[in-house]
Design brief:
Layout (H helix, E strand, L loop, with lengths): L2 H4 L4 H5 L3 E6 L2 E7 L13 H17 L8 E10 L7 E12 L2 E9 L5 E11 L9 H4 L3
Antiparallel strand pairs: 1-2, 2-4, 3-6, 4-5, 5-6
């Protein structure tokens, strides 16, 4: 799998109209427009949409560091909503802040079009264990 295919939006992110601007060296920037279908009852952008953008930005930052096809997932997340969004495009800037074994740590800030912080997100991701090839005695012949 080549890197351009590896760092790409999955069907869910495409559904939310996310766009990847940058994803390299453990840093990623993604954006998403405010659309009426992303609004909650009061007409503001749904918090779940904002969290999805921040989480995806961190996932793309991680993908920029790992080999294509490596499995990982969010195991813990903390969100601070700072301001409402009622229009425009929001942008998430994410950075991997550390790694300990198979766990990767990162933070993302989501801003509105005016550069105002609307959400701060921190998360821990865990990389899946590498699969070991298992060979029976017969499978070892010829190796």
């Amino acid at each position: 799998m080549e890197k351009n295919t590896w760092i790409a939006c999955a069907p869910f992110e495409s559904l939310l109209h996310m766009h990847i601007h940058e994803a390299e060296h453990g840093v990623a920037t993604l954006s998403m427009p405010f659309l009426p279908q992303f609004a909650q009852g009061a007409g503001l952008m749904h918090g779940g949409a904002l969290v999805s953008l921040a989480d995806t930005a961190l996932a793309m930052a991680i993908k920029s560091l790992l080999s294509p096809g490596t499995h990982f997932g969010t195991i813990e997340a903390h969100t601070h909503f700072l301001a409402p969004v009622g229009q425009g495009t929001v942008t998430a800037k994410a950075q991997i802040t550390g790694r300990e074994g198979r766990e990767l740590y990162g933070a993302a800030q989501v801003e509105d079009e005016q550069g105002r912080a609307v959400l701060h997100f921190e998360a821990t991701f865990k990389q899946a264990k590498a699969k070991k090839e298992e060979h029976g005695k017969e499978g070892l012949k010829g190796l």
